Amino acid sequence: MGWFQRFRGTDAAEQEPKQAAGTDSAASSTSATEAPPAEPPEETAAAPGGLFARVRQGLKRTSQLLNTDIRDLFKQEGRLVDEQLLDELFAILIRTDMGVEPAREIRDQVGNDFRARVVPLRDVMQSVQDKLRQLMAQAEEPIAFASQGPTIILVVGVNGSGKTTSIAKLGALFARQGQRVILAAADTFRAAAVEQLTVWAERIGAEIVTGPKNSDPASVAHRAVARALESQAEICIIDTAGRLQNQTNLMSQLSKIRRVITRQIPDAPHEVLLVLDATAGQNGISQARGFSAAADCTGIVLAKLDGTAKGGVVIPIRQQFQLPVKYIGLGEQLDDLALFEGDRFVDALFADAPQNP
Fold it and tell me: Count of CB atoms within 10 A of residue 336's CB?
């Protein structure tokens, strides 16, 4: 599997659902029976407007920084690779939000390859790409399913990161694979989160377990896991509160949810996915540090990679926390989700790279 083996969605769910009229957030459980829409044709890398083109668009801002700014360092006939050029290259790399250490490693690689030589732009660009591929290397990491019984997926992240939409996309993916999906609206402190997730559940044909406002999130998670066991559902996705990661009570609540569901299924949760907003830049590293400590995260969903973000933030997160980036979100439609693959990510960054003769 890779970039192009994504799930397909529907135009009927293009935008984040508005607050549902008449939704009762205090209901204990509601079953959604709406059938998912038919799948559109398979998209390929070469298809107009295909997934690779959309990934390129999502990385447009970062790509422009890398390609245009690095090109401007060079004259047509090439340039001497000296300390001045390396310092200028380092400054450009920093602006992609990749962080100091990765930028330093790339700069040093270019220096090791070409120092004191006059080289054309294409050689330096190739060196940068090769180092980026090394930094982004990871095993392909789809969801690790339980060997038996339901797979429990805990989803964490700050409010506004794209967490609710990402849960809907994941739920749609599993539903289209023919798996029964239970959603748990354990962000009980924010009524809008419960209402939005309820609407999404109806659209993707999933069952949702909710609880009264300000009720114990761990109790909602417990009932959702119990329901998954009872109904023999294959997947249970648990939403969690998303207030700022430096709030001790939030982190304590995440730890409590883990303890509760582990009592029901000893090896649960099978995945703890951290949803990061690609537009958050270096603040994403702070989010990753706080949530990974409290929730023992197993992977990242990078949301909102829609052309306004600097995708370079993936690099320091991968380096510092050794967490695989499992999925990237490219927009608000249900089909705007793709498995992450490092080489394809770098290909998209440099697809429009200028080349000197």
Answer: 23
- The counts of H helices and E strands in the chain are 12, 11
Type of residue found at 213? K
Q: Round to whole Å and give the CA distance between 16 and 165.
A: 7
Residue 162 has what DSSP assignment?
S
Q: What is the pLDDT of residues 19-76, one digit of tens each?
A: 333 333 333 343 333 333 333 333 333 333 565 676 777 777 677 767 788 888 887 7
Report field, pTM of the whole predicted structure over 0.70: yes
What residue ranges in the chain does DSSP mark as E strands? 29-31, 79-80, 118-119, 151-156, 181-185, 207-209, 235-239, 271-277, 299-303, 325-329, 337-339
3-state secondary structure (DSSP) of residue 265: coil
Interstrand relation of 29-31 and 207-209 (parallel, antiparallel or unpaired): antiparallel
User: In sequence order, which ranges of 276-357 are alpha helices (DSSP H)?
Assistant: 283-295, 314-321, 342-349
Please list, residue by residue across 298-311, b when 16 or more beta carbons sit within 10 angstroms of its beta carbon and e when fewer do: bbbbbbbbbbebbb
Rounded to 5 degrees, φ, ψ at 134 are -65, -45
Check if the beta carbon of residue 241 is closer than 8 Å to that of residue 256. no
CB proximity list for 59: less than 8 A, separation 6 or greater? 305, 307, 311, 345, 348, 349
165 neighbors 337 (Cβ within 8 angstroms): no
